[in-house]
Amino acid sequence: MTQVKSIRRLVVAGDKRGSKLGYPTANLEFCPEDNLPEGVWATIVNVNGQDYPSVTFVGAPVSFGGDKKKIEVFIFDYAGDLYDKIVRLDFMHWLRPVKKFADEKDLIKQITRDCHQAREVLSNK
User: Fold this and answer.
1) How far apart are CA 18 and CA 103, in angstroms?
2) Are 76 and 54 in contact (CB under 8 A)?
3) What span, in angstroms and rounded, lies between the C-alpha atoms of 10 and 125?
4) Which DSSP category does 8 fall into?
5) For residues 69 and 58, what is the distance between their CA atoms, to the nearest angstrom?
6) Using one digit for the tens of pLDDT, what is the confidence trace for 67-78?
7) Are 39 and 89 a contacting pair, CB within 8 Å?
8) In angstroms, how far is CA 108 from the centroid of its own chain?
9) Which DSSP helix (H) or strand (E) runs through 115?
10) pLDDT-derived band of residue 125, with 50, 70 and 90 as boundaries?
């Protein structure tokens, strides 16, 4: 599998919404010049030279009324602190567009499906 795009970014503090939903994320600054298609991606994040499979959301959190675009990365099987660290994020496969959900329950179900699909895609790389 060939990566579509790769970026290096500083991990910044977010609003902790992912943690509240059971999917803590590393938040990276969105830069329009990256020209990243919005939506959910199967990604690989490199932390201190180690690659980890992940799923990444690019776009505005429309389910929560947000309009500021973000990059939020849920790293599978990782529990360390990433604040103020620079990571490399490789975008491997686009999974779906940004979608507005009726409630948090529907959003959590979709995140679970996204994680399953990303793991499947990345295991076949």
Assistant:
1) 14
2) yes
3) 26
4) E
5) 7
6) 789 999 999 999
7) no
8) 14
9) helix 104-123
10) low
Q: Which of 18-22, 32-36, 55-59 has the lowest mean pLDDT?
A: 18-22
Which residues, 6 or more positions from 39, have their beta carbon under 8 angstroms from its beta carbon? 57, 58, 59, 94, 95, 96, 97, 98
Report, at the CATH architecture level, how domain 5-123 is classified: Beta Barrel (2.40)
- For residue 105, the tally of other CB atoms under 10 A from its CB is 10
Element (H, E) at 51: strand 50-59
Give the length of the chain. 125
Domain residue ranges in the chain:
5-123
Is the pLDDT assigned to residue 1 strictly greater than 70? no
Query: Are 101 and 15 within 8 A, CB to CB?
Result: no
Amino acid at 10: L
